[in-house]
Amino acid sequence: MKNRKVTSHPTPANAASLRSNARPVIGFLCPRVNYSITQELWAGISDVVAEQGANLVCLAGSGENLTDESLDRRAVLFNLIDPRNFDGLILWGSALFHHLEVEETLAFCARYRPLPLVSIGNTLAKIPEILVNNYQGMYNAVVHLIEAHGYQKIAFIRGPEGHPEGEERFRAYTDALAAFSLAVDPHLVLPGTFLYESGVAAAKILLDERKLRPRTDFEAIVAANDEMILAVAGVFQERGIRKPDEVALVGFDDSPEARLALPPLTTVRQPMYENGRRAAEILFALLAGKEVPLQTKIPTELVIRQSCGCVSPRVIAAGIGSIQRVTQPLATAMVERQEKIRTEIARIMGASATAAAWAGPLLDSLVADLSAGPGDAPSLLSPFLVTLQRALRQAAAAGEDIIAWQEMMSVLGHSLWPYLDEQQLLQSLDLWQQARVMVSEMAWQVQSNQTLHAKKQAEVLREISHLLSTSFEVEELLNVLVRSLPLLEIPSCYLFLYENPARPTEWSQLVLAYRNNQRLALEPENCRFPSRQLMPEGLLPPGQLYRMVVIPLFFRYQQWGYVFFEAKPREGNLYEVVGGEISTALQGALLMKQEESRSRQLQTVAEVSTAVSTVLDTTDLLQRVVNLTKARFGLYHAHIYLLNESQDKLVLAAGAGEVGRQMVAQDWSIPLDAEQSLVARAARIRRGEVINNVKANPHWLPNPLLLDTCSELAVPLIVGEQVLGVLDVQADQINYFTEDDVRIQSTLAAQVAVALKNAQLYREEAQRVQELAQLNADLKAVQAELLRQERLATLGQLTATVSHEIRNPLATIRASAFVIDRQTRDRGLGVEPALDRIERNITRCDSIITELLDYTRMGKLNPQAVLFDDWLQQVLDEQTCPKGITLSKEMAAGVEISLDPERFRRVIINLIDNACQAMLEWRQSNDRSLVLSIQSKVVDQKLRLSISDTGPGIPPDVLPHIFDPLYSTKGFGAGLGLPIAREIVNQHSGKLEITSELGKGTQAILWLPLLRPERDKE
Questions:
Q1: Nearest by Cα to 623 from 649, 652, 645, 603
Q2: What number is the average pLDDT over the span 476-495?
C-alpha cells in the first residue's frame, strides 16, 4: 500500500468562531444521526477526539433520505463549512457520495482544501479511507447458508445501484453461489436502497409481483444491510410466514435492531465504532505530519444467530463440553496465557472498551478466588464477583452491550477449566452460575432503564411537539425550547436563522444561546455574522472542551437555519427529532410573521393605489407614488423612470424628496441598453431585479446624489405587453430586499402602470366624448327612419370601438365607487344608496355592451349531438323560477338534435327571462295566477318547443317590431335580446315564432330539425 505524508495547516485567527481555545477542531460530515450505525461511527470518532483533547463538531447534513432530492438540503449545511474553522474533517464517504459521479465527489472534497481529510468508505478522491471487508463478510454469510443449512434457493436484496459497498456485497453473493455451482436466478435478485421502505418493496415484489413461495421457490433471503432485511421480516410476520422455519433471513451491519429482533438476526458485523476510531486516529496522524496509508481495511465478522436456523452460539459456548486437563499450576498458566485470553476477549467483545480494560483484573480476581479454596470468604464478597459487578456498571454507564459479557464468561471459563482440579472446577461452576445471573440482571436493568428513559423522553418530546406546534411567534418558540432542554438533558444549544433563506450561505443571525440550563442575554450588534463562520466569534466560552452536533432546520425545501446541540453520540435520534420539531414550528412562526409583514405591505400597496387612482395628471400621479412609497416602506429613496417615445431611453419622471426634484430638473435619463444600470436591465428583461450589496457589485451604476445606497430593487411598469417605465427603490442597508419585496413592489408597479394607462385613456376618452357628442348632434338632425337605418349600418363598425372605449371609463367609475365605499364604510354618511345606483347603472351599461358585442360577433357554431329533453332539463335545473310563478313542464320529444349547447342555452334563458319579467311586472296590477309552461314534442319530423306565459301579452302595434334590432319598449336594454335569439335559431336551421294575446299571455315557439328523422310507425 502506498503511503503519503501530509502536514497540518495553520488556521487564520480571523476565522476562529469555533475556536474557544487552542484545541484542534475536528468536523465529522455525515447524513442524519438517528441511525444506529451513524451513532457507532460518531462514538468511535468522539472517543479518540476526547483522548486527544480536541473539540468535535458533527455536521448532520440531513435530508429525508439519501436521494438526489435531498442533496440540496445536505449541501446547504456542508456549504457553510469554512476550512479556516476546522483543523481536519472526517467524511462518511459511503453514505454521502454513493449517488455522485467521481468528478462531483472530487469537487465536493476539493472545497475543503487545504484541510486534511479522511473518509469512512470509498470516495475515489485519493484521500485516506477506512474500508471494511464487505466482500469477505457477505461471502461467508452466503456460504454459511449453503454449507450449514443446505440452502440453494437464496434471494438477495441489493444496495443502491453503483454504491461501492453495495456492489461488493452483491459480488460476494454471486461468487459464493458460483463456488458451489449454483446459478444466479434473476427472479431472486431484488432492488434496494439500504432504506427500510425498499426492504418492504422487495418483499412485495417477491411475493406479490413474482408470485414466489417461501420454502418452495426460495429458502433464504440475504440483504445488503440489516434495515432492509428487518423490513422483510416485518412483511413476513404480517403474512404469517415463519422465520426461520419457512425462510431464513441474513443481514449486514449488526445494528442494535438486529440483535433485538425476534428471532435475533444472523448478520455480518461491520465494526462501525472501530471504523470511527481508526478514521480519527489517522486524521490526528495527518495533523502530526505522519505518513498514513491511503486505505485501511478492517475485517468484518459473521455473527450467527437464530434467524438463519442456527442455535445461538452463546448457548453453545456456555456449555462445558469435554475438558482436557493440564497439570500446570493455575497461576503460572494464567500468567503465560493472559495475553492470548485478552486477545480472544477483544475479538468477541469488539468495540467494548470496558471489556478490554477489565479483562486483566477479572482474570486476576478469578484466579485469586479459585486459588484461595472454598469457604475462605462469603460468596457475596468474592473478588471475582465484586470485580465483575464494577466492570458491568462501567460498561452499562458507557452504553455498551451487556449481554455480550456472557460470551466473555464463556471465554474465561474455557481458558481456566483445563487447569482446575475437581474441587476448583465445582467452585468455578458456582462462580460461573452467579456471574451469568449477574450479567443477566445487569442486562435486564440496563434494558429496563433504557426503556424507561426512552418512555420519559418520548413523553417529553410529545409535550414539546405540542407546545412548539402551537407557538406562532419565534420568541414564544424559543421560550418553549429553553424550558424543554433541561428535561431532555441537553446542556447547551445555539440556534441560528439565515438572514435570507434564499441565500443561506451569506448571513446568519444568532437568535438563541442556551448554556448551563439558562438562556444567555444577546447583544444584537454581535448576533449577525457571515454564515460560513457557523457562529459569531467569542460565543463559545474560552477553554471549553465540547462535543457538538449541527442539525439543519428546514421544512421540505424551505431553509430556515441550523441548531448546535452539545451532544452524546448515541443520543443522535433525540437531536434529529428536536431539530425536526423546531423546523416545523419555525415554518409556522416564520410564515406567520411573513404573512403579517406581507399583509402590511399589501395594505401599503392598496393605500398607495387608492391615493393615486383618482389622479389623472401624470406628473402629479407619479410624484405622489414615489413620495408615498418612500415614506410607507421606510426606504432611502424611490423614483420612477418612463420609457420615451423612441423606446431607447428611460427618462426620470419623478423622484422622492429634494434629491428626486434635483434629478428631474437635471433631465436625468438612462439608455435602455446600459449594461451597468439595474433600472435598464429590469426594463429589458421585464421582471424585478435586486442588488443587495451595490458596493460589492462591479456592474452597478452609482448615482452621485445617492451616496448611501446599499441595496437596490427595480421593477418594470407593464400594462399588457407594453413596458411603460421602471419603479426603482433603494435602501441604506445591505441585504435589505427579499423575494417578497420583489413581489410586493411588482404589485405596486402594476397598479402604477394601470393608473398611468388610465390617465392616458382619460385624456383620449375626453376627446372621444367630444367627438361622440358632435356625432350625436348630427344624428339627431336625421329623420327617424334614416336614424334607424344608420344605427343598423354603423352598428358593426361602432360596436367594437364603443364597447372598448366605454368599458374603460366604466371600470374607472366602478373602481372609484369601490374606493369611496371603502373610505366611507361604517361612517354613517348615507352615500350607500347613491353607490348602489352607480353599480346598478354600470351593470346596466355593461349588459348593453355585452348584447351589442354578442349581436355583432355572432361566430360559428360548435354543434354537438344532444338528447334534447335531457339537455333542456339540465338548463332548467340551473335556473331558479321567481317566487310567485309556477313552472309547468311537459317534455315528450325524446329525440336527438344537433345544437351548440352554450349558444342555444342563451336562447332558452332569454325567452324564459322575458316571460318571467313580463309576468312579474303585470302582477303588480293583476292578481291572476302566473304560470310558465314549457313543452317539447315532435311535429311533422321537427322538434317543436314552446315557452308560454300568462302575462299581459304584447300590444298588436309592437308585435311586428319585436325582432327589429335596437327596438325596445322597455326602460332598459338595447332591444337585441330577441334578434339575437332568432339569429341563433336561424344558425341552427330552425325558426322562432312569437304569438301573443293581450291579457292572456305570450308564446314563443321554436322549430328545430331532428338529427335523425323518426321512422314512420307501422
A1: 652
A2: 89
- Sign of the alpha-carbon dihedral angle for 479, 484, 489, 494: negative
pLDDT at 748: 86
Q: Is the pLDDT of residue 379 over 80?
A: no
Task: Please classify residue 704 by burial: count the beta carbons closer than 10 Å to its beta carbon, then call 0-12 exposed, 13-18 middle and 19+ buried.
Answer: exposed
SS3 55: strand
pLDDT at 463: 76
810 residue type, one letter: L
374, 424 Cβ separation under 8 angstroms:
no
CB 29 within 8 A of CB 61: yes
Q: What is this structure's pTM?
A: 0.57
Sheet (strand 711-719) strand order? 669-671, 649-655, 637-643, 722-731, 711-719, 689-691
Q: Which three cell numbers stand for residue 965?
A: 334590432
Q: What is the pLDDT of residue 377?
A: 46
SS3 label, residue 508: strand
From residue 397, alpha-carbon distances to 258, 273, 342, 447, 571 in Å are 22, 17, 22, 12, 14
108 vs 282, higher pLDDT: 282
Phi, psi torsion values for 115, nearest 5 degrees: -65, 145
| Averaged confidence pLDDT in the chain | 82
Q: Convert the pLDDT of each residue in 250-297 to its tens digit.
A: 999 988 889 888 899 999 998 888 999 999 999 999 999 999 999 999
> Could you identify the residue written with the cell 322562432?
992
Among the listed residues 220, 212, 214, the one whose alpha carbon sits nearest the alpha carbon of residue 250:
220
Beta-carbon contacts of 452 under 8 Å, excluding residues fewer than 6 positions away, are: none
Rounded to 10 deg, the angle between the 272-287 and 36-51 helix axes is: 40
Is the C-alpha dihedral spanning 388, 390, 391, 393 positive or negative? positive
Rounded to 5 degrees, φ, ψ at 490 are -100, 110
Q: What angle do CA 957, 962, 964 make, to 5 degrees?
A: 115
Distance CA 309, CA 164 (A): 30
| Residue 910, helix vs strand vs coil | helix
CA distances to 30, 103, 507, 534, 546 from 83, rounded to whole Å, are 17, 20, 17, 11, 19
Name every residue whose Cβ is closer than 8 Å to that of residue 218 and which is 6 or more positions away in sequence. 153, 154, 155, 188, 206, 212, 247
Pairing of strands 896-899, 864-867: antiparallel
pLDDT per position as a tens digit, 834-891: 777 787 677 767 666 666 666 655 667 788 999 999 999 998 888 888 888 888 989 8
User: Read out DSSP for 332-377?
Assistant: HHHHHHHHHHHHHHHHHHTT-HHHHHHHHHHHHHHHHHHHH-TTSS
For residue 166, the one-letter residue type is G
According to the model, what pLDDT value does residue 903 have?
83
* Pairwise CA distance, residues 717 & 683, whole Å: 8
Single-letter code of the amino acid located at 761: L
Cα separation, 1011 vs 943, in Å, equals 10
Q: Which pLDDT score, from 0 to 100, does residue 857 have? A: 57
User: Could you check whether the bond before residue 24 is cis, i.e. omega within 30 degrees of 0?
Assistant: no
CA distance 1015 to 988: 22
402 vs 390: CA distance, rounded Å: 13
Residue 41: closest CA among 551, 569, 404, 548: 569
Answer left, alpha or beta for residue 776, where phi above 0 means left and psi between -120 and 50 means alpha. alpha
Length of the chain: 1018
Give Dmax over CA atoms of the chain in angstroms: 145
For residue 888, list its beta bridge partners: 933
